[in-house]
Amino acid sequence: MASLSRSVAAASLKAFTLFEGVLMLVLGILALVFPVRTSGVITAVVAVAFLVGGLVGWVNNLMRARQLGRWLSFWRLVVSSVFLVAGVSMIQQLAKGTFNSLLPVISLTLAIGIVFLVEGLVAVVVSLSHRQVSGWAWGLVNGLVTLILGGLILSMSPAGLMPVLGILVGISFLFSGVDLLVFSASFHREQVTI
């Protein structure tokens, strides 16, 4: 009986993983076919996340003001307010149409370019300071590639920035989909050999 329930659980895990892999592949292809639209959707999701984060931050800070102290509570309210303003501003710009949605998409893309530069620089420094560790070169390569991507994003024209988020998400989804499908196939092989 236990063997049967393990087989059912394994089959449902395989089916779910297979479904998720196919879904990620389809979403990745769609993101690459429609990168500008995907960039807009990603920006809208980030705008909603900023709005919700700002609201939750305000409520949390007001409820915990006595425990946090005046200055900490004040600065946390400032940060929450920035999130609220950014979220509302991005949503308003996206709601006004394609031309007005350029600013939040480009701003978010530029922010990602800056994050890539910082992340790449940190990865290079960390890998070079750990040369005695096996595999340190992969960290160096990762850091250099991330630095190059950050530089490319920041050097692009505003019109060239519009599809960047969609392309990055599309590539990520494609790799995730392939990874899930390979995992599902290897899981299926293990099940057959039992």
Radius of gyration from the alpha-carbon trace, in angstroms: 22 Å
Q: What is the overall silhouette?
A: globular
How much strand? under 5%
Enumerate how many helices there are, as a single number.
8
Main β-sheet, in a few words? none
Helix-strand sequence: HHHHHHHH
In angstroms, what separates the terminal alpha carbons? 16 Å
Task: Give the proportion of residues in helices.
Answer: over 70%
Counted beta strands? 0
Mean pLDDT, rounded to whole units?
83
Going by helix content, strand content and strand pairing, the class is mainly alpha
The low-confidence parts are: none
What is this structure, in a nutshell?
The protein is mainly alpha-helical.
